[in-house]
Amino acid sequence: xxxxxxxxxxxxxxxxxxxxRGTSGxxxxxxxxxxxxxxxxxxxxxxxxxxxxxIDAYGVALPNQGRWPSAEAPVHAAVITEAxxxxxxxxxxxxxxxxxxxxxxxxxxxxxxxxxxxxxGAHGDTVxxxxxxxxxxxxxxxxxxxxxxDPGVPGVIVAEHGLYAWGDSLSQAIDRTESFDWLFDHxxxxxxxxxxxx
Length: 198
Ligand SMILES: [Zn+2]
What we know:
Layout: H1 3-16, E1 26-31, E2 34-38, E3 52-55, H2 73-82, E4 87-91, H3 94-102, E5 107-109, E6 127-129, E7 131-132, H4 138-148, E8 155-158, E9 162-167, H5 170-194
Parallel strand pairs: 7-8
Antiparallel strand pairs: 1-2, 1-4, 2-3, 4-9, 5-6, 8-9
The structure holds zinc ion.
């Protein structure tokens, strides 16, 4: 199966999980010296291999492809190039957005089995997922994500926006995205239970 087909299948899966409503969200994967990213403005429930666009390490589309990359392509390129990721997933996960609203200084996670899904320990390992402010300037947003990034945490939440998660491979980036969503949902539910009257 080609990388473009993997990208399309990943997008459809993430759509089916409810994290790519409308035309939101995008996925990228390293392809040699370049990067394959989902095209701009497409319905992720019906992504095909032909919806993948090649961009360079700076997020600029290679010529003569007949499609435009996602507007957020420069952020994907920055994470792949600067953070050394093999693939990046960006989703508008409701749990990620709500968790960032609840913990704007960073989302604390501890003592839960699913932490293994982001490469951390199930017990006694305190993880804080960085939160950055949103921006419509992609260079600005990229810089914020790279500056806030914790090398031991494979994701950053953009407040009032969504989650960027990454891995060495596309399947690892997806697994981590699924774990992050579960962890944020769990943290929010636990927080409600522990409040007086909750
Ligand atoms: Zn977005």
